[in-house]
Amino acid sequence: MRSMIPDYLDGALSDVVADDSGATAAYIPELAAADPDRLGAAFATIDGQVYGAGDVEVEFTIQSISKPFAYALALSDRGFGPVLAKVGVEPSGEAFNEISLEDETGRPLNPMINAGAMTTHSLTGPDGADPARRVERVIDGLSAFAGRRLRVDEATCASEMEHAHRNLAIAHMLRSHEILTEDPRGVVDGYLRQCSVLVTARDLAMMAATLANRGVNPLSGRRVVGERVVRQVLSVMATCGMYDAAGDWATQVGIPAKSGVAGGLIGALPGQLGIATFSPRLDGHGNSVRGVSLFERFTSDMGLHLMEVPPAARAVVRSNRARGSAGDAVRVLRLQGGIRFAGAERFVREVIDSPPAEPRVVVDVSEVYSIDDVSRRMLLELVRRLTLDGHDVYLVDPEAVVPDPDPGEGGRVTVVDDIDEVPVVRGEAGARDVALAGRADDA
Amino acid sequence: MRSMIPDYLDGALSDVVADDSGATAAYIPELAAADPDRLGAAFATIDGQVYGAGDVEVEFTIQSISKPFAYALALSDRGFGPVLAKVGVEPSGEAFNEISLEDETGRPLNPMINAGAMTTHSLTGPDGADPARRVERVIDGLSAFAGRRLRVDEATCASEMEHAHRNLAIAHMLRSHEILTEDPRGVVDGYLRQCSVLVTARDLAMMAATLANRGVNPLSGRRVVGERVVRQVLSVMATCGMYDAAGDWATQVGIPAKSGVAGGLIGALPGQLGIATFSPRLDGHGNSVRGVSLFERFTSDMGLHLMEVPPAARAVVRSNRARGSAGDAVRVLRLQGGIRFAGAERFVREVIDSPPAEPRVVVDVSEVYSIDDVSRRMLLELVRRLTLDGHDVYLVDPEAVVPDPDPGEGGRVTVVDDIDEVPVVRGEAGARDVALAGRADDA
Amino acid sequence: MRSMIPDYLDGALSDVVADDSGATAAYIPELAAADPDRLGAAFATIDGQVYGAGDVEVEFTIQSISKPFAYALALSDRGFGPVLAKVGVEPSGEAFNEISLEDETGRPLNPMINAGAMTTHSLTGPDGADPARRVERVIDGLSAFAGRRLRVDEATCASEMEHAHRNLAIAHMLRSHEILTEDPRGVVDGYLRQCSVLVTARDLAMMAATLANRGVNPLSGRRVVGERVVRQVLSVMATCGMYDAAGDWATQVGIPAKSGVAGGLIGALPGQLGIATFSPRLDGHGNSVRGVSLFERFTSDMGLHLMEVPPAARAVVRSNRARGSAGDAVRVLRLQGGIRFAGAERFVREVIDSPPAEPRVVVDVSEVYSIDDVSRRMLLELVRRLTLDGHDVYLVDPEAVVPDPDPGEGGRVTVVDDIDEVPVVRGEAGARDVALAGRADDA
Amino acid sequence: MRSMIPDYLDGALSDVVADDSGATAAYIPELAAADPDRLGAAFATIDGQVYGAGDVEVEFTIQSISKPFAYALALSDRGFGPVLAKVGVEPSGEAFNEISLEDETGRPLNPMINAGAMTTHSLTGPDGADPARRVERVIDGLSAFAGRRLRVDEATCASEMEHAHRNLAIAHMLRSHEILTEDPRGVVDGYLRQCSVLVTARDLAMMAATLANRGVNPLSGRRVVGERVVRQVLSVMATCGMYDAAGDWATQVGIPAKSGVAGGLIGALPGQLGIATFSPRLDGHGNSVRGVSLFERFTSDMGLHLMEVPPAARAVVRSNRARGSAGDAVRVLRLQGGIRFAGAERFVREVIDSPPAEPRVVVDVSEVYSIDDVSRRMLLELVRRLTLDGHDVYLVDPEAVVPDPDPGEGGRVTVVDDIDEVPVVRGEAGARDVALAGRADDA
Hints:
Four copies of one chain form a homotetramer.
Chain A: H1 4-16, H2 29-32, E1 40-45, E2 50-54, E3 60-61, H3 66-78, H4 80-86, H5 114-122, H6 131-146, H7 154-162, H8 165-176, H9 184-195, E4 198-199, H10 201-212, H11 227-240, H12 246-252, E5 257-259, E6 264-269, E7 273-278, H13 289-302, E8 317-323, E9 330-339, H14 341-353, E10 360-371, H15 373-388, E11 392-396, E12 414-416, H16 430-442
Parallel strand pairs in A: 9-10, 10-11, 11-12
Antiparallel strand pairs in A: 1-2, 1-7, 3-4, 5-6, 6-7, 8-9
Helix pairs in contact in A: 3-4, 3-5, 3-6, 3-11, 5-8, 5-9, 6-9, 6-10, 7-9, 8-9, 14-15
């Protein structure tokens, strides 16, 4: 049997293939000469599965899609302070090659426009690295995002350098504001090498999936950049990634995205997947015509819009039951699923609203697959308050999803691997044992 | 026992109370005379629980916070086409009172700046409604979002009208472009009444929670606007809600938000909660100084940032087990949790990668609390393909979480309420019966 | 015999009449319905002679051509300080209906754009005048420039008011910046009445001639505004009169000018003449197509360009001769023409370079028709220095072209009506004849 | 005896010397290290007399003052078409180092901003000249304007090149728009050599005087550029020479001018004189503080403002008298002074209004020192019409101020050197004396 996802992708490509509007980028022969009929799309899940259709193995230059990744590298290599001091995060409402510098400081408005991207390139690698080493660092970094060794298309790179007047203009302007502090030509050269890295739609989907997967490449398992960096990069892609069409994209597609002039387009959906399309004909904003159509289709068909409100997790509290009686009575609260603030709040509320009468309280998180920090703290604070109210509290946590379970001053909790380890429960009715036995089977 | 959430809010207020920087809005006496020391914060969950601390019952004027809600009403009353034809969705990178119209058309760039907000106001209610009825419609709508009857502060409204020169200028400019097609004074007057609606921080939290809850007021259960409208409104809040500080907010706070000049500030976290703060001293952007601090604190403490990638739902497939043997063999796949594309993909992949050898396949969704449309379709397509491969397929769905379970041409599925209804399984080991019995208890 | 100037004008009109490009202004019916084929041109000299050809007696509305005259009235009525505090003098490089206000202050960039013109209108008449009286003042003032009583076209005015959304927008914006301090509607109404004043091409030529004639109407002899005001108005017309085509006009035509949307166009050439044309079809800048052609022709045919360097007045010193001998010797310096700095300098230089040996020095200005203030001062200072060097100095000035001939401390001069009144010269009848006969030698 | 002009200049310098506000340019050490107390001023008349006070022999770099002169050279070397195709003439309202390019074409708005000045530099010399030869051409040209061989300050030039990031940025931007079509670095280098030419205030005054003298250096008598070029250059100086203070300068000073960052400032008053000042401390616009004060003083003291309307030449017609009687009767019209359109018009009008009854008409221009082309044509047309009316016409023109005196078809004129050569008049000796004695009556 075959998965319907490739079929879906095939169908999507079929639906857009007839649209031959737009044109390949014309400013250098290498791009102008690209086969305009190429068409491909790929999904990469955050556990590394890749689905593709069409030309997903054809190499083309990454161009501006390198910008968010180089930004991630710069943030990672130099830290937030030095990078934010030189490149802002505000949407410019302008085309990619506008200068868009802040009035007084000359700081580029964001890292997605060329001025910001060149500055970002100059901030990759260790401070003081020479241009060649810096390029090496960037190619290494992009390769790490992709999960395979990438290389530069030297012909495109040489041609770009010949037509780099506008970028040289911008770089000299940045130098005049001391946003760049070195020879602008070296920065432009390095930046154009970065843009000339060859990728396939498959590579791009994997690079996007690395962002969607909190910075860890799903295939290699290697952490490329930290989570805080990923959050910053995705935020900037969401507001500045599509240049002067940012608002249209945000409302209609709603996925942090980035396009490149060679026809690539990526989207990264946090916690879910990376998407890439490839089709070289561009619209007036410089975005791939069929790529934009595909993304609109994907978001509509698949409910990927960031503001598509998911149904609430109503069932965080799987069960809330009393067992035993009198002095032996135990209150057992079983939680499940992934717990974030909204879920933790409901759990806490349930306990507050119906305070346990039983002397012992068991919080069973063995079916919780994740709990974020605020929820962990709320849970532990609840434990502390239960202790202060005179309860003995047990935490069933066989996989240690609640790290460092210290409820703080006045609180106390006994962590056990199995509910059977809670004293009295052990002797209880077999129903629970059976239940537990059943549960173990299910896991 | 007391919930720790009010304690948390109290603590947060304590931490910011000392910051008396900024100043109340000075352009009308009513705002200038506001008590600058007021401070309050409220959370409203999407099932209607409100937590508050400080001045959450003090009334103040809603001001620009009315903008996203009026935008929602206009989209709802007139449809997307007519509204988008007159108001864009692009960030302006400019302050709230900039004119920011598109060059040729005079279309305001977005509904969060005054030009866009006045145009939006003019698009509420039925086409052709007189100004007074339109105002009534807006107040009704805001009241529906809040879940209680709101009223206008007539003194503030009168004072606003006296100082409305800039808004009148903008409205006349819109009239000259035929974006407005009626007397501009009536629109300005109605818009200022909209801005003069009195709310409390509690109201605002509930209004934001209505957005977070897909347009349904958590308390009244009444649908105020549709889901597509909510998605549009939240998208625009995310990119345009904080004016010229949009990028800073998007990276540092990451919650769709809107501020008002009387000191209110709201944030709506899709599927989770609504947040509101109230503190009248404003910073240079016109945002509440302590409100911004509180939101930064909330997002950091509580992991609310939109791009904070949640841990993946690894356990969508709760179990995948064979039962019985030979001709009686059944493959039982039990799903759990909320299923969106990424989860559905994993389930599908599991089936594809390990195709069931058994003639009968049971897909048990009784522990699934939600499934979105794409996942439903993937599930049904999988069913169809299983049928085509010769399997008999059963769907255990007692709560009908999979609506309209038609697998399409060539597919066939038997929907049952309980796994016991699947023929052969019935005779199986009692363990399962017990498990099921236990499960029912847990629900 | 007939003057060739009307013939010239007729010929010029014939040459442009075939050009029917452009279109009448379309924003109100009264202008749209104007006969587009009307064509007229008029010259008015600074002593009141008017030459006309074509439709010079047809009335049309003055529109923006009222702006420089109202600016003159405001400067005259309120003084430079209060007017410059509210309206700047910088070219905006923008179209007439752009708002073009200074960032912080809201001050309109110049009085030729609508924002500046409305502010200027509000500054005419005495401070505190009501709108109706102010309009009366402006119509009186425009009439004084034209030399006949002008009146308002009520139909056009009413129609303008109906389509005044953009002007109302601008006026409210000015009110919000407190550049206007009264009800904006009253200012717009008054301004539109000002624009609706009916004039003919003959009127406009006379109005321009009044500016060219230092503010005195050539026909009535009445001073309408002061010379300093005229200098300011002409300067602003030169840099801001033609909106976004200011540089083209300055280089190609080089005459301070102003156009109106009803088809009028004026130019004022300081000290020479006023020019007006009338042809209702407008180009993309809002200037009369055939009017612009006519002005280009006039400046080229007639050498009217401000930067057309006139041949220098080489013969300021008409003769420099000694008469008599020994103790009776007299040095006679005869000046001629109009004397400005450059001429005075040459005279002074001649005396310095060849200091008179004679005890008496006669400066004869009886053939000088004008002398400006700096030249007067230089002449008197020369007299003073001659006195200090021991000379007796006589000034022959029968028409008192050198007012207040006081050479200052240590200087002394005897003013006489005729050279014969200089003591010793008296007896020398005939010598003068010789001198005159010898004029060719002096040259 | 000493001229009062140097005294005046000394006095003017004394009045401003105390003002030590502003600061020397800081962007390169050579300028920063300039002696800020230097102060000088010079006037150069159009016949080559130079008056100076203070530091008029101190050399400094010409900087932006080279711009109008290089523009003149480009217009002269390449013609108007090619230069206007690449550099506009519109005021930018922006500072000197703004990019200020037209949106679509990338054409710099005017030649006084750096973008326009570098483009202008690239258009000097013959098309295709190499950068070094072009620089030689520019230095030759500037030297011709100054009347002495100028040289480059190599130290300043080298330092400028090190700090040329912004100019390099602009030049690369121009290259990207193909406004420049060669290596931008060569253009910037050449432009900076142009700016590094050493001049004194005396040189600058002479350069300005060359413009004021229609393009002929007053000392060398050599024509540097043509009159049409001078008109264009002065027009652009008038509207764009003082950057964002253009309107203030136009109204308050009213002299076409240009400033340089080393402290120089020039003004050229067509037909009168060139002015230069030198004082290195600059104001916020980059103009010399004391230089601006001096020019304000000069224009006010000396009536140099372009819009300062001079008293009209009322006496163009010196006398209009009949002589002889009956068949011998002659009408003698004596003209005087410099005749431009306004004067010619008065003469023509006098003849038209009082048509001569005498068969012979004598037009005596022996006391006319100049007549422009339009006036010449009007005079000859009058002659033609007089002929057609049956008159014999004589022109007394001993110095041939009326070139090519052909009255055209049907006209006839006899040119004589002296009125005595007119047949009948010859016998009337003495009549002329009477006429002269009666001159006062004619006025």
